[in-house]
């Protein structure tokens, strides 16, 4: 599995070779399905002009059917990455590319991409005096009745609940039903299981895993809750100061020590990585100067990114 995570340059060579092999006689154009579900190259992003980047030279290629957990401390850049992959923000950095299902997410948004984040539940619109049944119908639930009913069961939702009278966790369940009832090819999850009770969370994770395996659908999931997650991912990746610390690691819960050379549960790996992040930050801070976040990031980027970083004009 690890061999499938080519760097982008290698992937392009590989793709050219494959395309040549696939070309039919008579130079008829061959159908060339996108090889990667999610692909970024040299993705650097600043939330505001003249501020340090929140993402720094992210190069990522996630295969169809993969389920990747993003692991990183608060402020590592996980939400920013997911929002950009969902096309919610325009990236203007020179040389940065983001493709989901082979399409530019912002300019040519592909179908079948679902983003679920925490801000939804804060929206006053979903706190109105309306029944769950009417709410789900208003967003097209009747068109996906079979999946909707399955999700209502998994998430233990009562159609008679009223949206303005339910708890945060119940509202989260309605959001998940709303977001997941339309079949997705790429699912971007930003810590949406945080307020679910453990039984609903467990049922949801089983559903997502089974759905992803059956339809070769792809999941990228940022979370701080690692309990009960051990058998979920196919890959894990560590983010620190807006950059990736190494490439995504194939995850096999039965062989986790071999995969990481360290502790065996996802929880203990996350804990170890976050301790390393804190040590790294403290190291940088005690190097005789007070190090800004931007300076920290400049210290941590790989050598081949440095030229790009220094060339980057923050006014874009
Ligand atoms: N709207 C914004 N404007 C300016 N800076 C922002 C904005 N949103 C995030 N940032 C900055 O970008 C960096 C990455 O934030 P991000 O929310 O992506 O981190 P995260 O890994 O998702 O954190 P958490 O685990 O706390 O959700 C942080 O330094 C944060 O301060």
From TrEMBL:
Q: Which molecular function term from Gene Ontology is one that the record holds?
A: ATP binding
InterPro entries attached to this UniProt entry? AAA+_ATPase, ABC_transporter-like_ATP-bd, P-loop_NTPase
Q: In terms of domain of life, where is this protein from?
A: Eukaryota
Task: Point out the coiled-coil segments of this chain.
Answer: none
| Organism of origin | Coprinellus micaceus
Renumbered to this chain, region (Disordered) spans: 280-304
> Which residue ranges does the record assign to the ABC transporter domain?
38-266
Write down the Gene3D superfamilies for this protein, in alphabetical order.
P-loop containing nucleotide triphosphate hydrolases (3.40.50.300)
Name the keywords, alphabetized.
ATP-binding, Hydrolase, Nucleotide-binding
Q: What SMART domains does the annotation carry?
A: AAA
Q: Does the keyword Transferase apply?
A: no
Start-end of Basic and acidic residues biased regions: 280-300
Q: Which Pfam families match?
A: ABC_tran
Question: Do the record's keywords include Lipid metabolism?
Answer: no
| Name of the featured protein | P-loop containing nucleoside triphosphate hydrolase protein
